[in-house]
Amino acid sequence: MASSDPHATSILQRCLQWEAIMLVGISDLISELPLETDCMENSGEVSLVLDAANYAAQKHATQRRKDAAQTPYVNHVLGVAQILAHEARVTDAFVLAAALLHDTVEDTDTTLADIAARFGHKVAEIVRQVSDDKSLPKETRKRLQIEHAPFCDRDAKLVKLADKIYNLRDLDRDTPIGWSQERVAEGVSPEMDAILDAIYRDHNLIN
Ligand SMILES: [Mn+2]
């Protein structure tokens, strides 16, 4: 057995010594960290975003996307937050946290009160504005989304837009199981296409 092997014991002792040296090194490092400065504020923001990602992963744990690979649902909310951070250059931790949580109220047992208690009222307000009432029929939900969109605040509009962009890219990448080509085409209306073309043309993104 390893415990009766003098060679193994000396390796174990050396490992323990290294562990002790490492712990001393780490505690020295901690004492040097500027905990009362910006570092702490940033770490609060990073914590908020990571807590939101972890909460979303737990709440969506058993859910899958409708693609053939049955991608875990949480990949969607991570992707929406990534679109905001990378493509829209959003750095506001409240908006990124709300993006990560944007489907928890609509698609899990989470309530807005849960979100407010855990992540604060600012995040909960964004999530409220982007959540549909699932008890209503699909057509009514779609109509209400369009009617309410102009009255959403800027942060909620950003999350909604990133959500739509992610879903359209997903549709383009892989047809969801059980969806006909007609249903896929429903995802993009000719009116919306025309509006987007005009915006792209104004910004010289297309000719
Ligand atoms: Mn979504």
TrEMBL record:
GO terms for molecular function: guanosine-3',5'-bis(diphosphate) 3'-diphosphatase activity. It catalyses: guanosine 3',5'-bis(diphosphate) + H2O = GDP + diphosphate + H(+). Residues 73-168 form the HD domain. The lineage of its organism: Eukaryota, Fungi, Fungi incertae sedis, Chytridiomycota, Chytridiomycota incertae sedis. The gene is HDDC3. It comes from the Eukaryota. It is an enzyme of class 3 (hydrolase). ppGpp hydrolyzing enzyme involved in starvation response. Its EC number is 3.1.7.2. PROSITE patterns: HD (PS51831). Transmembrane segments: none annotated. Belongs to the MESH1 family. This is Guanosine-3',5'-bis(diphosphate) 3'-pyrophosphohydrolase MESH1.
